[in-house]
Amino acid sequence: MKSIAALMSAAALLSAALITPASAQQTPLKIGVLSDFSSVYSDIGGQGNVEATRMAIEDFGGQMFGKPIDMVSADVLNKPDVASTIARKWWETEGVDMIIDLPTSATALAVMELSKQYEKIMIVTDAASSDITGKSCSPYTAHWTYDTYANAHTVGSAIVKNGGDTWFFLTADYVFGHSVERDTGDVVKTAGGKVLGSVKHPLNTADFSSFLLQAQASKAKIIGLANGGGDTINAIKQAGEFGIVAGGQNLAAIVMFISDVHSLGLKLAQGLIITEAYYWDLNDKTRAFGKRFLERVKRMPTMNQAATYSATLHYLKAVQAAGTKDTKTVMAKMRELPVRDAFTDNGVLREDGRMVHSMYLFQVKKPEESKGPWDYYKLLAEVPADQAFRPLKDGGCPLVK
């Protein structure tokens, strides 16, 4: 007869053998969507980002390690302190494993500091400042969709090459707008153009008249809109009322989305040169995702919404492949796995947190060129990742050796 000690030892070995990384998980995987549901960026992210996250969870199978995947969401009101308060609560007491979206660069940079403190993953799909993967980079943050460097280099260089060599900027007065102006201004000057000046406006401005008059008085060939969402829409509408384009100046929307074109209509938006990371009518994969999203949300997805789907799905695949929710292990797996989905078929997550992929240069169609609802863009060029995004060595990220 075996001794009691031997039996206990055998039982312990059997128990250890049955504990896999998956079954060792004690809590369900939980994703938090921090977005703008009520202000200037709600169309480009907002509820659409929540639905995109939900679609990714469903497509993955809805479960991780035998437990349902949970999702929570909240409105940050585009305030860094509100974003930080919610993120702290989610990470400290509510068991959130990953936070996604972050509608402004200021909210993203604030939550990034907490992400370092709690060693939790966050994926930025809305905010655009290139500082997120530059001087402010974090080992726990991925920047997914686009950034001010990429947009500046694709749109800015194309416009300068076509004769738009003097610029005046209309700039949202916070870190995103400043980054757009800085990065685009660098491109203009490198290409041999001149920046004649700029004017700053508050976020979510209703009246652009005084700012547009200064831009008009500059006589610059190009008025660069270093803003986004509702601010870009209002600036373009009011520029039309002032007769700025009719007077010989042109507008350059550095960061613009298909939802903005939809709100403006093709009559106002026609001819604009813009860059996007995703367009629903690029290929079979983008069309399939776009039509599924349209059925659920009644709008075609913006690039941010498609990217939120992509980032969520990639994160879930990485957790599954890692067999654990451990942050460092999952981040390593996210960098190891290629990004291949409806958003991009050539994505790679770099060590500075930048997910690099092709960007696309489009021109907005004339009304008579559009074949139906949401048929808004003509593809001018696909810009490879190594041309669109800042080289790894140039960002100033302390993580890059």
TrEMBL record:
Q: Which GO terms describe its biological process?
A: amino acid transport
Swiss-Prot/TrEMBL keywords: Amino-acid transport, Signal, Transport
Amino-acid biosynthesis among the record's keywords?
Answer: no
Leucine-binding protein domain sequence ranges: 28-365
State what protein this is by name: ABC transporter substrate-binding protein
Organism encoding this protein:
Bradyrhizobium cajani
Looking at the record's lineage, which domain of life comes first?
A: Bacteria
* Family note: Belongs to the leucine-binding protein family.
Database matches in InterPro entries:
BCAA_transport, Leu-bd, Peripla_BP_I
Spell out the Pfam families in the cross-references: Peripla_BP_6
Show which residues constitute the signal peptide. Answer: 1-24
